């Protein structure tokens, strides 16, 4: 494995581990309160979004390793929407600042490294050949 591909894999593993940590957080909530918990009276779309992350985060982690391009796109989308949503939510409700700050740090890390991860993932893709 060459330099860009190795760096991409290292970054994608870090992203995946962070997403596994987020999955653990969502799993704890689901095990404690159930899948249909209202998060203390949160809006219906907030409940759906947060509960969906229990499934989207591990899917993203898996895709980062088996389908890197799709995984990178989904990773950026997940963390960007999560921070945007939680920033909006924090304007109206108290939140756990430690979890919120960890999401912001992860977003900044992803945004500052995703180009490198993308380049290596693109180079690692097998070339398509014409079938006769």
Automatic annotation (TrEMBL):
The lineage of its organism: Bacteria, Pseudomonadati, Pseudomonadota, Betaproteobacteria, Burkholderiales. The chain crosses the membrane at residues 12-36, 48-79, 99-118. The keyword Membrane applies. It comes from Paraburkholderia bryophila. This is DoxX-like protein. Keywords: Membrane, Transmembrane, Transmembrane helix. It comes from the Bacteria.
């Amino acid at each position: 494995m060459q330099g860009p591909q190795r760096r991409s894999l290292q970054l994608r593993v870090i992203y995946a581990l962070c997403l596994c940590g987020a999955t653990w957080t969502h799993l704890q909530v689901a095990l404690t309160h159930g899948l249909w918990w209202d998060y203390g009276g949160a809006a219906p779309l907030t409940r759906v979004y947060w509960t969906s992350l229990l499934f989207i985060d591990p899917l993203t982690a898996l895709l980062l390793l088996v389908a890197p391009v799709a995984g990178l796109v989904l990773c950026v989308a997940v963390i960007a929407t999560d921070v945007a949503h939680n920033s909006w939510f924090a304007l109206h409700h108290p939140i756990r600042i430690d979890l919120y700050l960890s999401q912001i740090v992860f977003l900044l890390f992803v945004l500052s490294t995703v180009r490198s991860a993308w380049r290596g993932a693109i180079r690692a893709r097998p070339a398509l050949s014409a079938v006769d």
